[in-house]
Structure formats: structure tokens, C-alpha cells
Write a structure and sequence with these properties.
Helix content is 79%, strand content 0%. The chain contains 9 helices and no strands. The two termini are 33 Å apart.
């Protein structure tokens, strides 16, 4: 009984932990801490030194997978698949709402708070707006992570669950790395996007069963 209760509360603890770590980075940016600059230089320098024509094509392809256009298309396609596969509007709306609210609205709001300027090095892609936290990193973790969570719910075989988790983790990491490579984000932007996106996704996973129960009750033809 205690184990089941702990598992049900784990997403909330994870969300709080990730948000706490995000807050450390955010505070470091606010006070312009030296360790933020040292961290950014330590991570970005070896990545930027490896620029080449082939690697540029590779990372630009991955950076496009985290774009707004890609996210919109993926949300539409996966939502359609999800409804075809499960006939559950509750699952569809959970996925769509948690992606839109987290990847779009929350990221935009936090960017406006910090208003961090982008790196001044050469950008390999056109990108406007503020820098922290990375919208591509945060959005990809929320969107692709949400897809992975739902696919794992629908999959019985543990080997496929591990494959889904591994594939999603690699994809999200490559999208984040691509943002550093193309020169439009600092590593602290990417890490901040991961932490805030992870905090949001963990919270939404914690609320998933409650959402389904509420949604199904509200939309049931037998409900008053």
C-alpha cells in the first residue's frame, strides 16, 4: 500500500526537484553569476569547435524537429493516431493541452520574464526572440516526452517500453545539442529548458489519471 502511494506521488516529487534545479539556474542568471558563464563556455566551446558542413546539415535537421511548425504537425498527427487507437478523447486532450500550455504559453511567459539575449556568435539558422529557457529544448521534452508516456501506457512489452524511452531521450538530447551547435542558445538555456519542461511534464503525468477521471465523468452521456 505504501509503495503504491509512493509511486503515485513520485511525479510530484520529481516535478518539485526539477523546478528547484531550474530555479538555481534562473537565480544564477538573475545575479549574473560567474559559474553560469563558465558552464556555458565549458559546454559550448567543444561543440562549436566541431562545426563542419556535414555536422551542420545533421544538427539543422534535428533543430527543425523542435520547431513550432514541427510541434504543431506532430500534435495533430499523434492526436489523430491516439484517437484512432484508443477512442479516448481524454487522452487526446491531455496530450494536446499539456503540450500547448507547457511548450508554448509557459515557455513564452518565462522568456519574457528573463529577456536574456541570444549568443552573439554566428547563427546557422534564423531565430528571433529571447534565449532563456530554450523553447526547442523545453518543447521537445514536453511534446515528445508526452508521446513517449502515452505510448508506454499503451505498450505491454517491457522491451518496447525501454526502446521508446531510449529513442525519446536521444531525440530530445540531440535537439537540445543542435541549439547550441547552430549558435542560437547557451548551454544554460538548453539545460533550463530541460529542467522546466521536465518539471511541467512530471506534473502533468501526476495529474494524468485525475484528468482522465474528471474528463470521462464530465463527458459521459450518463453524467448529469
Amino acid at each position: 500500500m505504501q509503495t503504491k502511494k509512493f509511486v503515485s506521488q513520485a511525479p510530484y516529487f520529481t516535478s518539485l526537484l526539477l523546478f528547484f534545479l531550474f530555479s538555481i539556474i534562473a537565480f544564477g542568471l538573475y545575479i549574473q553569476a560567474d559559474w553560469i558563464q563558465s558552464f556555458d563556455q565549458f559546454i559550448s566551446q567543444p561543440i562549436l569547435e566541431q562545426r563542419s558542413e556535414n555536422k551542420t546539415l545533421f544538427f539543422i535537421a534535428f533543430t527543425h524537429l523542435g520547431s513550432v511548425a514541427a510541434m504543431v504537425l506532430i500534435v495533430l498527427l499523434f492526436s489523430s493516431f491516439l484517437f484512432w487507437r484508443t477512442k479516448s478523447l481524454g487522452m487526446v486532450f491531455w496530450f494536446a493541452l499539456q503540450t500547448i500550455l507547457g511548450a508554448a504559453l509557459l515557455n513564452h511567459y518565462v522568456k519574457d520574464i528573463f529577456q536574456r539575449q541570444r549568443p552573439t556568435i554566428k547563427h546557422l539558422v534564423v531565430q528571433g526572440g529571447y534565449s532563456f529557457p530554450s523553447g526547442h529544448s523545453m518543447g521537445s521534452l514536453i511534446c515528445y516526452g508526452g508521446i513517449a508516456f502515452l505510448l508506454i501506457q499503451l505498450t505491454r512489452r517491457s522491451v518496447w517500453k525501454r526502446c521508446i524511452f531510449f529513442f525519446t531521450a536521444v531525440l530530445v538530447l540531440l535537439i537540445g545539442m543542435s541549439r547550441i551547435y547552430v549558435g542560437v542558445h547557451f548551454p544554460s538555456d538548453v539545460l533550463g529548458g530541460y529542467l522546466l519542461g521536465g518539471a511541467w511534464l512530471s506534473l502533468m503525468i501526476g495529474l494524468y489519471q485525475r484528468w482522465l477521471h474528471w474528463f470521462n465523468k464530465r463527458t459521459s452521456p450518463h453524467s448529469e
